[in-house]
Design the sequence.
């Protein structure tokens, strides 16, 4: 397969954020990306596959379809899977990790399905049949192996290759975490959803390991999120070294030297240390002003911007979440008049404690919990007149 073969591609995105990934792909020059539950379908060449892996801030992984067919029995599955041209992607010595999901199909035992597909690939490319890892236990293609994704839905089998390897939230900078860290892909998606404008200040007063602040700095400085990591597609037979090298070179040249105004604080000194070390690894430590302080002591600049925070949930972070939310709301109203505020809250009831005028929630999954992300509408700067008209 050369760079001239069109591929059927799918960018997996965090649940509820498919529309954000779609907009991102469109901005990356992808034609007709279509948001569907679980991600975004698109088609393109290797150049597009590389570009989305390198530049998407919100996708979890990018998979390429190898083939699809109907299968109601194991023999049929193995035979049809072996008919696919795996050798266009995989070398005979490639270790294969197969992960299967089955939904409303005659073949419902996902481990057995994964095993047959692994055997079929071995039949085709000539390696001894590898043992598939138990579901969810292995980072797909994180090493030298190739991740194969099998999806059986109403007896329709779709077989894809994972081009990303380790999950795309693993940018390579966050080696140190504080309590309840946020996935980098989710943090970036929420910044985009809140329409973060790098020309205005950004403030995260509960920064933990610094994910929002670092992702904002990467956006502001136009740093490709995948610049510091490796991808599974570099092991494919059709890997286009020259194209990939050019994309990396271009991405390095496009880094912006601007100095965004980003404040990150947390009352936990250990969290600040971790956040600073992470920012250094991400190459954006100069773009963020860190400070160990409680939310009540923050000193935002007078020019308004965006306050964004993952508020403590109580369930995950051992503090009185209701009081912290109420305190945050008071600080935001008193010290951040004219700023927009975006928060991940443990629940709508907790968000209500802030007494901030949030719009409709965007429901997201964070740390296995379904929680709301809420943003206030753009505000007009606070004046004595407006304060008199809207007493708090
Ligand atoms: C849910 S975590 C934030 C995680 C962060 N977004 C990340 O990606 O690592 C909440 C953070 O709030 C901090 N925190 C709790 N109460 C605080 C307070 N009153 N003032 C400032 N920080 C506080 C905790 O130390 C913790 O790091």
Sequence:
């Amino acid at each position: 397969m050369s760079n001239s073969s069109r591929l059927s591609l799918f960018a997996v995105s965090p649940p509820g954020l498919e529309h954000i990934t779609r907009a991102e792909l469109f901005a990356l020059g992808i034609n007709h990306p279509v948001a569907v539950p679980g991600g975004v379908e698109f088609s393109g060449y290797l150049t597009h596959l590389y570009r989305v892996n390198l530049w998407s801030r919100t996708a979890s992984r990018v998979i390429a379809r190898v083939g699809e067919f109907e299968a109601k029995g194991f023999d049929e599955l193995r035979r049809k899977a072996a008919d696919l041209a795996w050798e266009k992607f995989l070398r005979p010595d490639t270790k294969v990790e197969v992960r299967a999901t089955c939904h409303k199909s005659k073949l419902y035992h996902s481990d057995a399905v994964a095993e047959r597909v692994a055997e079929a690939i071995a039949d085709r490319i000539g390696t001894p049949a590898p043992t598939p890892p138990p579901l969810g236990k292995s980072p797909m293609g994180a090493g030298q192996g190739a991740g194969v994704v099998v999806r059986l839905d109403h007896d329709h089998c779709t077989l894809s290759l994972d081009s990303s390897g380790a999950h795309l939230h693993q940018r390579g900078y966050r080696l140190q975490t504080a309590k309840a860290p946020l996935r980098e892909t989710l943090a970036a998606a929420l910044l985009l959803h809140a329409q973060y404008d790098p020309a205005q200040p950004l403030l995260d007063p509960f920064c933990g390991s610094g994910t929002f602040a670092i992702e904002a700095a990467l956006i502001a400085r136009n740093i490709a999120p995948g610049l510091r990591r490796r991808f599974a597609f570099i092991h494919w037979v059709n890997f286009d070294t020259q194209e990939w090298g050019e994309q990396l070179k271009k991405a390095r040249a496009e880094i912006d030297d601007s100095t965004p105004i980003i404040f990150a604080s947390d009352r936990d000194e250990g969290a600040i240390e971790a956040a600073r070390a992470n920012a250094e690894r991400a190459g954006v430590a100069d773009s963020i002003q860190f400070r160990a302080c409680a939310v009540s002591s923050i000193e935002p600049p007078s020019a308004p911007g965006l306050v964004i925070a993952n508020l403590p949930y109580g369930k995950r972070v051992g503090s009185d979440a209701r009081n912290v939310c109420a305190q945050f709301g008071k600080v935001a109203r008193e010290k951040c008049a004219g700023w927009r505020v975006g928060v991940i809250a443990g629940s709508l009831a907790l968000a209500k404690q802030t007494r901030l005028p949030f719009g409709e929630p965007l429901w997201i999954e964070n740390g296995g919990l379904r929680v709301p992300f809420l943003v206030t509408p753009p505000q007009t700067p606070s004046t004595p007149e407006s304060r008199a008209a809207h007493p708090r």
In short: DSSP finds eleven helices and 14 strands in the chain. The pocket of S-adenosylmethionine is lined by residues 178-182, 205-209, 211-212, 266-268, 271, 294-295, 310, 312, 317, 319, 324 (CB under 6 Å). The chain has two domains: 7-162, 184-221+256-389.
